[in-house]
Design goal:
transcription regulation; 8 helices; two-stranded antiparallel ribbon; MarR family winged helix-turn-helix transcriptional regulator; mainly alpha; WH_DNA-bd_sf; MarR/SlyA-like; WH-like_DNA-bd_sf; Arc Repressor Mutant, subunit A
């Protein structure tokens, strides 16, 4: 059972979320808030619906998270010029130190996960996982593999490491 690639991938994802959630607390955030800030950083001006889809949560859940981050001064809503009912979300300057701290913490989690794996094998692992993601994304939601990968909710760690 442990050599089943789907089981291993799911277990690794679960363990990453667990470690990132623990690390996010050190930055004064919850894991979901950390992922939301990363998503806004990568997609400045995105609206609540797009972010909810990206994070794979209901829009009301995203709205509550955004409300808390806005109240904390980390996110601001700006009117969407294309839709008077929607808001575009942006990080504030106050969010930048927390993003930097979160990135440093994420790098430590990633480094720990890759301990004992040489650079060539790490590159191969990234390549293989990227191809698997592309294979699974093909035809997803009418998007091609490249576009679907941009919207993948499992890409959160990369948000914080690669910015």
């Amino acid at each position: 059972m442990h050599d089943n690639v789907a089981f291993l991938a799911n277990d690794i994802g679960r363990l990453f979320r667990k470690r990132f959630d623990a690390a996010s607390g050190q930055a004064g955030l919850t894991g979901p808030q950390w992922r939301l800030l990363g998503a806004i950083q990568r997609n400045p001006g995105a609206n609540q619906i797009a972010l909810a889809n990206f994070l794979d949560v209901e829009p009301i859940t995203a709205a509550r998270m955004i409300d808390r981050l806005e109240k904390a001064g980390l996110v601001e809503r700006r009117p969407d010029p294309g839709d008077r009912r929607a808001w575009c979300l942006h990080l504030t300057e106050a969010a930048q130190p927390q993003i930097a701290e979160a990135r440093a913490l994420a790098e430590k989690v990633i480094a720990r996960s890759l301990a004992g794996i040489d650079e060539n094998d790490q590159a191969l692992l990234r390549d293989l996982l990227g191809r698997m993601r592309d294979n699974l994304s093909e035809g997803c939601c009418g998007l091609d593999a490249t576009e679907a990968a941009k919207h993948s909710s499992d890409d959160d760690a990369k948000v914080l490491i690669n910015g």
